Amino acid sequence: MENIVVGITGASGVVYAQRFLQALLTKKDIFAHVSISEAALRVIHHELGIDLNYEKPNFEELLGIPADKITYYNNSNISTTIASSQYPIKAMIIVPCSMNTLCSIAHGIASNLIQRVASVTIKERRKLVLVPRETPLSSIHLEAMLKLSSVGTCILPAMPGFYHNPGTLNDQVDFVVAKILDMLGIKHSLIPIWQSGNDKSE
Q: Model's pTM, two decimal places?
């Protein structure tokens, strides 16, 4: 069983986190460790119309599917299991990633669990994927992203594409989630594999 940490912070685009967890839980060999910031709970209420309890959120209500492969961690508990470098974590994804969280991580700040686990993930040379959803970007944001990228962090902005001819909003969400899964090396069928009309079979 592989352990993946998912941090959900207070940026717009919590539907990406919702869809990513739905996709992740379909994989038999993956266990999700989730922490949600208080700001993210407010965004979830505003954008999804779902009220989650900060101490014990109902993930089945959030995802609409059984959530027995999720362990939840209070974001204020920086001494919990997953904050240890000895805990076997394959990767961490912060989706969506607020600019406050991104800039804090870039400057070595670990004032909550999500930031702490990200810091450990970087120092242990594990895969860290940040999914910011902000526009426009200031020079401060860009410098922080460059700093994180230089130490191996994947900066994966929530920028939906159009070459797969999306027909619905869900198609656009799946595009971004598919990119996250690709970065983790997890197989999926959320979007079709691109095939150029110029390809010729031998």
A: 0.94
Give φ, ψ of 95 to 5 degrees. Answer: -145, 120
pLDDT band at 164 (very low <50, low <70, confident <90, very high): confident
Percent helix, strand, coil in the chain, to 5, is 40, 15, 45
First to last CA, the chain: 41
CB distance 37 to 75 below 8 Å: yes
Q: Which residue has the tokens 């027909």?
A: 167
pLDDT at position 193, please?
A: 76
How does pLDDT run across 83-121, given as a tens digit for each residue? 999 999 999 999 999 999 999 999 999 999 999 999 999
Cβ(64)–Cβ(23) under 8 Å? no
* The pair of three-digit structure tokens given for residue 157, joined into one six-digit string: 């902005």
Is residue 8 a contact partner of residue 40, using CB atoms and an 8 Å limit?
yes
Return d(Cα 130, Cα 120) in angstroms, integer. Answer: 14
Site of tokens 């669990």: 113
CATH class, domain 2-184, is alpha beta
Q: Is 195 helix (H, G, I), strand (E, B) or coil?
A: coil
DSSP codes, 75-100: TT-TTSGGGSTTS---EEEEEEE-HH
| Tokens describing residue 159 | 């920028």
